[in-house]
Amino acid sequence: MFQRPWYAQVYKEKKSSWTNAYRDMNSTSAVSISYSSPTYDLNGKFIGVVSSDLRLTELNKSLEKIKPFDGSILIVVNENNQIVAASDSSLTRGDKHGRLTDQHGFDIPYLKDSSLPVVKKVGQLIDHKLPARVSRISVNDSQYFVLVLPLMDNNHLLNWKSVIIVPEKIMLKELENFKYLGFLGLFGIFSLGLILILVVVSKVISPLRAILNKTDELTSYRWTLPEDKWVFPEIAQLEQSFWKLSRHLAKSFEALEKQINLDATTGLLTRAGLTSKEETFAQRNLLAVISVDNMNAITNSLGYEYGNEFIRAFIDKMQTTFPQGTLICRDAVDKFIAIFPGMHQHADVEWYQQLITNLFTDKYHPKESLPKKFVFTGYAGAVLSRVTKSTLTEAIMNAGIALEYARKSTTCHAMLFTESMHAQEVYNLQLHENLSRGIYNQEFHLVLQPIVDLSTGQCTEGECLIRWHSKEMGIVPPDRFIALAEETGLILPLGNWIIEHACLELAALITRGASDDFKLHINISARQLLSADFAWFLLDAIKSNGLKNQNICIEITETVLLQEIERTRKTLQYLRRHGITVAIDDFGSGFSSLSYLNILPFDAVKIDRTFTAGVLTDQKCESIISSIVTLTNGFSVPLIAEGIEDDATRLKLIDLGCMKAQGYYFKKPAPFSDFVCSNGNIIL
């Protein structure tokens, strides 16, 4: 539609205009011109184009009927002296034939290009400003009388001309019959014909202009049918169609506005409806965005009907919990905006936070059926700032940021937005952009931290760690960008880069003298482990660098182990069958369960540094390490202690039965190229 002639020009210029002639899309022969006008809604927003068509093939027939004499030619031309319509329809045929599906490229002929010599001659004369009076011309020894008259509409948008060509021999024949009286009669007929042409054209254009002048009323109920009937039934039918269309569009716009502004399920205002009713939140400065996190699970498990009942119950609970006058609107399926009445201070916020917390900590009995109980889980973010139409969007955005902080919190259901939250979000966005560029620009490098056998002091293992020196942000610690990479999905390309370069660095280290059995530990995220091609990618990287599968140990945390246990178990079993070993990293730091140790395969356990740091001073830490040593001995796997900072800690771990350790006491993480090897052992 955007390419159709009757639409494209008005859509671009936003003003009324006549189109050039074009071939109708639904016909192989019909040629039309259109008068099109832009249409706007009550807010002045452009919503479409109203167009009226004048079919030129029908105008040809009218001109044939009203031409002054048999043998004369009556032509209507546009401002470019192209033949729009003619009493001889063959004059209107252009060079292009056939159906034009895109309605472009239709050429109507010029007078001067006509195959009829007299018409061609007239076209050449008109190009040189033929005067608006009867002229006499000669073509191929034949004489013709020519009259050119202007043909315009009241808006001066239509600048056409009518051309009448009468052969002299026809004139002479009439003179012979009527002599001087006949000549005067002929002149009268000639003039009457001209007037008739103007009247007919006016009768066609005037009603169209009247209809077009009413197009502003198309989307309202103000379009009325005229009391006087139109001369042409087609015009009357067109007016009737526009009247019906007007009523249909008005109803549609009313329904659409209601659908946009009101939630169909709950009857609450939507965000759009809230924005359009600024008076409802005047003199308020406390806004909260509330998310019902178990809404989707309820709907997916029990169906939409139950889900609607569930969310109505939550709305009822909000209305009974919050102060009277609280404005509640539905922003999404499981998200609401609440604007509390009055102007508040920071001291008031804690009370409102408790109200929101009550939504998710108390079971709810619907009024109509007490036996049924609903349990709601979710979080909220609030913002303390004057709410106006201009600040509403920003307030909702900031409350949404606070909502995400509340969701990550383990201590509260509702948090108040602070500028530091916004600063952190901006930092995360910058970090994400630079992280993506950093992967592409090769800004990362790997370091190695040795793992030492406590009984022999030798090093035949090590953990591969990643470091990032950003061109924009400088040195960025791993604990800042690793978590963000996991959240955004960039951990997949970053993880693949680590695997490729770790295998490359290990191959070079073995070439420099490290043991052929040197085992390199690589940290793997949950997304990596559960990706479809992870195992294939890892095995291919090992093979491509001439390594053995036994050279690689993947380290995974308890959190990774507990995600999709069955898929995780199958992947780990597959890798272990191919010789790759598995170590459980940061054991005891998460919400672990001993049950998974009996389900998931593993070859080593790494104890979290928080326990080793307190082993000399905290009896509980010593007891935990002792228990884990006993546990790993029972599974016949080594325990690797992280974070060894001094010799006393090393000796204590040996005394407790720990077999391996790593930490700054032995060696800080350093580039692979910094390590010197001798007799298959890394010299520390």
UniProtKB/TrEMBL annotation:
<protein>
    <submittedName>
        <fullName>Diguanylate cyclase/phosphodiesterase</fullName>
    </submittedName>
</protein>
<feature type="domain" description="EAL">
    <location>
        <begin position="428"/>
        <end position="683"/>
    </location>
</feature>
<dbReference type="InterPro" id="IPR000160">
    <property type="entry name" value="GGDEF_dom"/>
</dbReference>
<dbReference type="GO" id="GO:0071111">
    <property type="term" value="F:cyclic-guanylate-specific phosphodiesterase activity"/>
</dbReference>
<keyword id="KW-0472">Membrane</keyword>
<feature type="domain" description="GGDEF">
    <location>
        <begin position="283"/>
        <end position="420"/>
    </location>
</feature>
<dbReference type="Pfam" id="PF22673">
    <property type="entry name" value="MCP-like_PDC_1"/>
</dbReference>
<feature type="transmembrane region" description="Helical">
    <location>
        <begin position="180"/>
        <end position="201"/>
    </location>
</feature>
<dbReference type="InterPro" id="IPR035919">
    <property type="entry name" value="EAL_sf"/>
</dbReference>
<dbReference type="Pfam" id="PF00563">
    <property type="entry name" value="EAL"/>
</dbReference>
<dbReference type="InterPro" id="IPR043128">
    <property type="entry name" value="Rev_trsase/Diguanyl_cyclase"/>
</dbReference>
<dbReference type="Pfam" id="PF00990">
    <property type="entry name" value="GGDEF"/>
</dbReference>
<keyword id="KW-0812">Transmembrane</keyword>
<dbReference type="InterPro" id="IPR029787">
    <property type="entry name" value="Nucleotide_cyclase"/>
</dbReference>
<keyword id="KW-1133">Transmembrane helix</keyword>
<dbReference type="InterPro" id="IPR001633">
    <property type="entry name" value="EAL_dom"/>
</dbReference>
<dbReference type="InterPro" id="IPR050706">
    <property type="entry name" value="Cyclic-di-GMP_PDE-like"/>
</dbReference>
